[in-house]
């Protein structure tokens, strides 16, 4: 029984490490840095439309920098 469970445990451990690394990268390297810039720009905002535009730019930049919208990269990671 152990011979069957060991490979699945190693696979689970590798998958968990990948998820941890991706989430760490997205939070610390993408969202946090862009959030500070967003807050700095938000202080200078003068209208509600400007705030909406800044928020949209923040979300767009986070999505692009996290590579979640890159279809080719996602297919490579999936394989």
List the helices and strands and how they pair.
Blueprint: H1 2-43, H2 48-65, H3 71-78
Q: Briefly, what is this?
A:
This protein is mainly α and 79 residues long.
Shape: elongated
Beta-strand percentage?
Answer: under 5%
| Rg (CA only) | 19 Å
* Low-pLDDT windows of residues: none
Overall residue-averaged pLDDT value: 88
Describe what this molecule looks like in 3D.
Helices cover 86% and strands 0% of the residues. It has helices at residues 2-43, 48-65, 71-78. It is built from three helices and no strands. The two termini are 28 Å apart. Helix 1 packs antiparallel against helix 2 (48-65). It has 79 residues and is mainly alpha-helical.
Short key terms for the protein model shown above:
mainly alpha; elongated
